[in-house]
């Protein structure tokens, strides 16, 4: 069986626009939530979010290219370039047919669709620009990376709602194991900060109502949780076959050991309250990785901070792992960076890989124990932990469950 390693990483987040800054601020418990600045929210009941700050797309692409890409595609190009640089990997005519791109997103260019629709209604059809379609299409996030980096291997954009970015990593793992590429740029990206999406989520009900206190609004696994804070950003990893990575002397950050996808077949937005589908993903991922529940040190949870998700996830962990679930240390970085939907799983994967490398686990901030969630939550302060095996959960609307397993690369 072909072994697959992570050899580079990139991140654009509300608390740092590169991996070292993102990781340092996670450990420090920094929160990126504040009042929304990107549009007028004066009369909106849900007006807080974790926005990316200080991002300049021209650092990663030409101005003309940036103008033609929606924000999530700009993020995608940025994290791909970061990850390639981190991996010390050059894409050129010697390898471009063997380098693929699997970048995922939940909403794609939904903000461009909103803007275009407003133009049509307010100004008429002649106001619509020629780049609305390429700016709005979801697959621009992968295609832009391919065009900008020269990667000519498999190029695919997947969407699995809040599990999208995580799914792309597992799918990249499978592409490499099938021999379809030597390198995959994989990850997730999202920017759906608009009046339409915030209003829609607000009407649906999963957003936190603590708009007067953004820094303490997202409270995963806490007894007083009341919803998530929307986020944005992106993360990418460079996946390589062991043979390719060792041949070029790459640094091995972590090994992708396996993963599992399942469906709840329950509800279009709500999770299965018993966590049955998520439990099957958890158990299947560990089995695929050739491990037992006792091998798992860390769980980077989906942990949105909604009443339904957090209790369902805790039930799933206990259902899948039994007594071993009580020995795992669990955290949710959404308490600090919000819920970036299609990018969330990839952001958590980067955090998990950093944790495996350093033996430290970032906290779930704003944490007050809930007796019904009687697991070991790393609350409010970073923790030193055994760092051999980490699992990362991502559960999407529609009942899509994705769990990936990462192992430390020490001695690999």
Can you describe this structure in just a few lines?
The protein is α/β, with parallel strands linked by helices. The protein contains 13 helices and 15 strands.
Task: Describe the secondary-structure layout.
Elements: E1 4-12, H1 19-27, E2 33-35, E3 48-50, H2 63-68, H3 71-86, E4 99-104, H4 110-123, H5 132-136, H6 140-149, E5 155-156, H7 164-177, E6 183-190, H8 195-204, E7 233-241, H9 242-247, E8 254-263, H10 276-288, E9 298-300, H11 307-321, E10 329-331, H12 334-337, H13 344-358, E11 360-361, E12 376-377, E13 383-384, E14 389-396, E15 400-408
Parallel strand pairs: 4-5, 4-6, 9-10, 9-14, 10-12
Antiparallel strand pairs: 1-7, 1-8, 2-3, 6-7, 8-15, 11-13, 14-15
Keywords, separated by commas or semicolons:
alpha/beta; single chain; 412 residues; 15 strands; Peroxisomal Thiolase, Chain A, domain 1; 2 domains
Tell me what the structure shows:
The protein has helices spanning 19-27, 63-68, 71-86, 110-123, 132-136, 140-149, 164-177, 195-204, 242-247, 276-288, 307-321, 334-337, 344-358, and strands at residues 4-12, 33-35, 48-50, 99-104, 155-156, 183-190, 233-241, 254-263, 298-300, 329-331, 360-361, 376-377, 383-384, 389-396, 400-408. It has 13 helices and 15 strands. The protein is globular. With 412 residues, it is of the alpha/beta class. The protein is 33% helix and 19% strand. It has 2 domains: 4-247, Peroxisomal Thiolase, Chain A, domain 1 (3-Layer(aba) Sandwich); 262-397, Peroxisomal Thiolase, Chain A, domain 1. The two termini are 15 Å apart. It has an 11-stranded mixed sheet with strand order 5-4-6-7-1-8-15-14-9-10-12, with helices on both faces. Strands 2-3 form a two-stranded antiparallel ribbon.
């Amino acid at each position: 069986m072909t072994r697959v390693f992570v050899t580079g990483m990139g991140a654009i987040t509300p608390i740092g626009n590169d991996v070292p800054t993102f990781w340092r601020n996670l450990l420090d418990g920094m929160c990126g939530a504040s009042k929304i600045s990107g549009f007028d929210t004066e009369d909106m009941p849900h007006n807080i979010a974790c926005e990316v700050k200080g991002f300049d797309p021209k650092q990663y692409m030409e101005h003309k290219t940036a103008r033609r890409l929606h924000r999530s595609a700009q993020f995608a190009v940025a994290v791909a370039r970061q990850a390639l640089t981190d991996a010390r990997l050059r894409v050129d005519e010697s390898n471009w047919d063997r380098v693929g791109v699997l970048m995922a997103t939940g909403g794609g260019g939904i903000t461009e669709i909103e803007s275009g629709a407003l133009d049509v209604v307010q100004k008429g059809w002649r106001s619509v620009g020629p780049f609305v379609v390429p700016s709005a299409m979801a697959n621009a996030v992968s295609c832009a990376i391919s065009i900008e980096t020269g990667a000519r291997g498999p190029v695919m954009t997947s969407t699995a709602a809040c599990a999208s970015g995580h799914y792309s990593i597992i799918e990249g793992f499978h592409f490499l194991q099938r021999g379809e590429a030597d390198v995959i740029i994989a990850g997730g990206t999202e920017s759906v900060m608009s009046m339409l999406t915030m209003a829609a989520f607000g009407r649906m009900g999963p957003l936190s109502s603590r708009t007067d206190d953004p820094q303490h609004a997202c409270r995963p696994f806490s007894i007083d949780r009341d919803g998530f804070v929307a986020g944005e950003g992106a993360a990418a990893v460079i996946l390589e076959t062991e043979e390719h990575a060792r041949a070029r002397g790459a640094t091995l950050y972590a090994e992708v050991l396996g993963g599992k996808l399942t469906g709840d077949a329950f509800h279009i937005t709500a999770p299965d309250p018993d966590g049955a589908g998520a439990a099957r993903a958890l158990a299947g991922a560990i089995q695929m990785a050739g491990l037992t529940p006792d091998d798992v040190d860390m769980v980077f949870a989906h942990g949105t901070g909604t009443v339904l998700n957090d209790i369902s996830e805790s039930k799933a962990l206990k259902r899948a792992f039994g007594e071993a679930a009580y020995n795992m240390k669990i955290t949710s970085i959404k308490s600090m960076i919000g819920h970036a939907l299609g990018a969330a799983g990839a952001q958590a994967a980067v955090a998990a890989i950093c944790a495996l490398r350093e033996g430290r686990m970032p906290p779930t901030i704003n944490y007050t124990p809930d007796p019904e969630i009687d697991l070991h939550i790393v609350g409010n302060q970073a923790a030193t932990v055994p760092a051999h095996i980490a699992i990362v959960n991502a559960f999407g609307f529609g009942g899509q469950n994705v769990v990936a397993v990462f192992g430390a690369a020490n001695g690999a």
